[in-house]
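Subject: sequence -> C-alpha cells, single chain

Hey, anyone have a minute? Need the predicted structure for the following. Not urgent.
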Amino acid sequence: MDVNVVYWSHPLAEHHLKFQNILNNVKHFNVPNTEPNASKINFIKCPFFNSFARKTFNILAPFDYSLISENGELKSFHYDQNFFNNNIFVRSNELKLFSFGIMSFLFFTKQNCILTCDKSYFSNNDFSISTHVIPGQLNISKWFRAIDLAFIIKNNNQLINIKKGDPLFSVNFNFNNNNKIIFKRFKFTDKLRYYSDYKKVMNPLIKPKLNQLTDFFYESFDNSGIGKIILKEIDNNLME
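Reply:
Had a minute. Here:
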C-alpha cells in the first residue's frame, strides 16, 4: 500500500509530538444509518470532509500550563520564570501576541506537500476558546524550518488553563492524494540545525516583494541542492 511519509523532529530532543487525527474527535457525531435522513446529516461520510480530516491532526499540549495577560504583561502560575522564558516567546504584549516555543516542531517530506497550520478542530478548551491561532502554509518538501504556534489572546485578565492533552492547534498535510500518512521521527542533528537557518540558502542581496517571498524561498532551496543533503541526514538519523 502506498503511504505518505512525514519526517518530524524538534530542536529540543526531549519534546515529543503528541497528535490525534481529527476523525477520532468527531466519532460521537456519527449518525447511525437507521436514523431518518442519515445520509443528509452525517457529515463524517461526506467525501470532501473525509479527505480533509484524514490529513488533519490536532497537536496536543504536552503538559499542564496556565497563561494570563494582565496589566499589559503575559504571566503564568505554573513552574518558574526560566520555564516561561524557554517556552513562551513574547512578540507583543500590547497586541497580546505570543508564541508557544515548545510547539516548534519541524516536518519534512520527499514528496510535494503543503503543510497548513491552523486552529484545532472539534475541540472546546480554554486555549481554543480564548485565543486566535495565527494560520500559515508551507511547502515542507521545499523548505526546512520549524513551525511556530503564534496566537493572540482575545481578552485581558482572562486565565487560560491548559491541560495536558488539550488540542492547541492543527496541522494539515496536503499531498494531493488520499494515501495513509505515517510519521517517522529523526534526530535533530547539528547539521540539520545549520540547514534549518533560511539565511544559509538565500542571497542576502535579493529582496523580493512579500507576495513573491515564498516562491523565492522555494526556488532558492531547490537551486541550492540542500534538500538531498537534508534527506540523507534524516535517513541516517531516524529514531523510529
